[in-house]
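User: Before I run my own analysis I want an independent prediction to cross-check against. Here's the chain; please return only the structure tokens and, at the end, one sentence I can use as a sanity check.
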Amino acid sequence: MRWRLGPRRATGEGPSASRTSARSIVRPESVAYASLSGRAIDLALVREALGPSPVARRGPSLQRIIAEVCQHYRLSRDDLSGPRRTARLAVPRQLAMYLCRQHTDVPLGKIGAELGGRDHSTVVHALGAIERRLERDATLREAASVLRARLRA
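Assistant: Structure tokens:
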């Protein structure tokens, strides 16, 4: 077998190259699981050892969170992601940003992009503003609680 060194990884040629690279990506917990269970390492064993994928454990999508906020406040998606900054629109938009951050691992820039192409710094401001407002506004706390419950369902 002849190995060539590529820009970031070694690539092999020959019949055992694919077997070698497949073995090298098996995580240690899968090897330990195989050893304890006395089974050969295959895809089924790796899935069993690692459990459900992170995608399956992930919470609601940005689109679902935004849709729930729009429904709760009776706004259209265009209203929520539009340029207007009236309190009637800004508070639900900020709450949507807050819930997106709480329920997803999506970067702030992508959250802002989904809500009208806003910058990540706008999302940072919204998170702080909503957290301060949640401390003193019982109506907003109740809305956030209702939305969280709907997102978990």
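Sanity check: The longest strand covers residues 2-5.
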